[in-house]
Amino acid sequence: MDMYVVKYKELLENYECGPLTETVFNNEVRPVPPHDQIRATGFAYLEKVDALDNDGWWMGKITRKEGSNYKVDFETTGDDEIACPLSCLRFHLDWRHGNTRTLKSDPSLFHTSKLSLSLIYSTYVANGL
Question: pTM, whole model, 2 decimals?
Fold first, then answer.
């Protein structure tokens, strides 16, 4: 399987000594999300979302709403749960056959048992190895 070196524009190495660089499989690389994405006005219980946290977009599920924040559970990081304002949430983006899709635009994704990636890179520069 092909691999790429990804150099992030916004994520930093430990101790902030420069941009984070890591090697990833080709199926983990995603383009920058479309700017014309549907703006969410709210989310339902257990709806899949992408949450902006620690300078990256992470896939999670809505567990409840507390005031103006939504609690998001991240199964892939050991069941971490954080409170996110609506401005830091978007419909989950899935990369299929060269296209970005959301559950709202393609409900058939709801029945997909395996998602291709839990971390959606927000910004990157990819170079082939």
Answer: 0.61
